[in-house]
Design a protein that fits this description.
This protein has 15 helices and 17 strands. The chain is α/β, with parallel strands linked by helices. The longest helix has 19 residues. It binds guanine (GUN) and fe (iii) ion.
């Protein structure tokens, strides 16, 4: 194990530093230096220096900082952000792809989620799952849980213990589910969500890593009375986030309208009516949107978790990311396991790229294609915006927390880099499209080393 694990000291990195500045610009600094203080805050990013020592000398308080010199095939990259992941579904990954959303929920998801009434299962699964997310470079994850407050609290405890930034809530389900995977009453659902919010506020009072959210599974599972109660909880709580599914399949949209008595012009109007729409709202999927949906989403500044892998696996449809971006709607990437079969946001980038290209094949219009710069933005800064953490993480702007990966594409086992030793953008592309966790040597959250190949030796 690395002796520096968990130690917080001023650190200075020197070498190739890459991050996203906008949807159109990836900044690549081949000989840069980044300084992070003992609170995990980025204090400087010098774009052009000759050594870590030189940078240490230039900045007050950094004279005795720990220095980390990157090797020629290594680069520092922002931590990946998984804007949508179902913790309890982890054991079902790669299974159940035969059916559509409804069949998948009934045959695989409902029984698996129901099994977390046994809290010991949460202890077993969540440790392995959080470790895997971190090893794969996801420094921030927005987790869906199950209906169980105790299991959800275990998830929050685990993220805090492992040093992962996370958005966590208890799932609220009253109707429309199977295998007993629902709650006894409206009041119990609200009380249990409050219990989880209180637990998270207790274990991480300043919200340094773990942030609570309200989690209606989707409009088709939460009747008007419970949705009203969750809206009240949102209003009465200190800034709190919301995570929910929206417009995943035409059937699900229809079921939402039926449950809410045909009162709403659109799915977005429904969530907005109950007060659950705002800049801290994370909406998974958003595939079958009406113009009205998008109008409300843009006005209320909600964010979209785009889960290209799961949308393809369940044959939900294609999320029109280009259209969302054109309307100024925030978009990030999610893994959505176990409807998606990979826990890696690198895979989410590839699948988002492919879905956008399928839209071009389908329509003949090249405008649907997402550029490489856009894919990198969505995986980092876009995810930070969707989680309402863009002032905290997402890139290496001075003043933000250092959530970062030390990536090494020089390992011969998984990436063929021959001939590209001096092409910085090519190294990044090779990792994004061909690489995996084997190239992730160090994972930092808030400046603290929490995972990576180097930790395992
Ligand atoms: N809709 C309701 N529950 C789920 C879920 O767990 N995953 C996905 N993808 N969609 C859902
Ligand atoms: Fe989901």
């Amino acid at each position: 194990p690395d002796a520096s694990k968990g130690k917080k000291a001023h650190k200075v990195f020197f070498g190739r530093i890459i991050h996203s500045k906008s949807l159109t610009e990836i900044e690549i600094l081949p000989k840069a230096s980044l300084g992070v203080d003992d609170k995990g805050i980025i204090q400087f990013l010098d774009p052009n220096v000759d050594s870590a020592i030189e940078a240490c000398g230039r900045h007050n308080g950094f004279a005795n900082a720990e220095t980390i010199d990157l090797k020629p095939m290594q680069f520092l990259f922002p931590g990946l952000i998984d804007t949508h992941m179902h913790a309890p579904q982890y054991p079902n990954m790669a299974l159940g792809m035969e059916g559509d959303l409804k069949e998948w929920c009934e045959n695989w998801t409902d029984p698996m989620e129901a099994s977390y009434s046994d809290t010991s299962k949460a202890h077993r699964v969540y440790r392995e799952m959080v470790a895997k997310e971190l090893e794969n470079g996801s420094t921030t994850v927005a987790y869906n849980s199950s209906i169980h407050p105790d299991a959800t609290n275990v998830l929050a405890d685990t993220c805090l213990e492992f040093g992962q930034r996370a958005v966590i809530g208890k799932l609220c389900i009253l109707v429309g589910s199977t295998h007993g995977n629902w709650e006894k009453s409206t009041q119990q659902s609200i009380d249990d969500e409050k219990k989880v919010v209180e637990h998270i506020r207790k274990i991480d009072p300043e919200g340094k890593l773990v942030l609570p959210c309200i989690q209606p599974r989707a409009g088709s599972y939460v009747p008007p009375e419970l949705m009203t109660g969750l809206g009240d909880l949102y209003r009465d709580s200190d800034p709190i986030r919301v995570q929910a599914h929206m417009c995943e399949t035409p059937l699900e949209v229809e079921q939402m309208h039926k449950l809410h008595e045909g009162k709403f012009e659109s799915y977005a109007d429904m969530y907005d009516h109950y007060g659950l729409f705002g800049p801290r709202t994370i909406l998974a999927h958003c595939i079958h949107l009406s113009d009205r949906d998008m109008e409300v989403m843009a006005e209320k500044k909600v964010g979209v978790a785009h889960n290209a892998n799961s949308n393809t696996c369940l044959t939900d449809g294609w999320c029109r990311v280009r259209q969302l971006l054109d309307k100024g709607i925030k978009v990030g990437l999610g893994t959505d396991c176990s409807a998606g079969y990979s826990i890696s946001i690198l895979n989410s980038m590839r699948q988002a790229s492919n879905v956008s290209r399928h839209l071009t094949i389908h329509t003949g219009d090249p405008a649907w294609k997402l550029s490489f710069e856009e894919l990198v933005y969505l995986a980092t800064m876009g995810g930070a915006e969707v989680c309402a953490l863009d002032q905290t993480v997402g890139n290496f702007k001075v003043g933000k927390q250092l959530d970062a990966l030390l990536v090494d594409v020089g390992l011969e086992d998984n990436i063929n880099t021959s001939g590209h030793e001096h092409d910085d953008m090519a190294l990044l592309k090779k990792w994004v499209f061909m690489g995996d966790d084997r190239s992730i040597r160090k994972v930092f959250v808030g400046g603290k080393l929490v995972a990576g190949k180097d930790l395992k030796g």
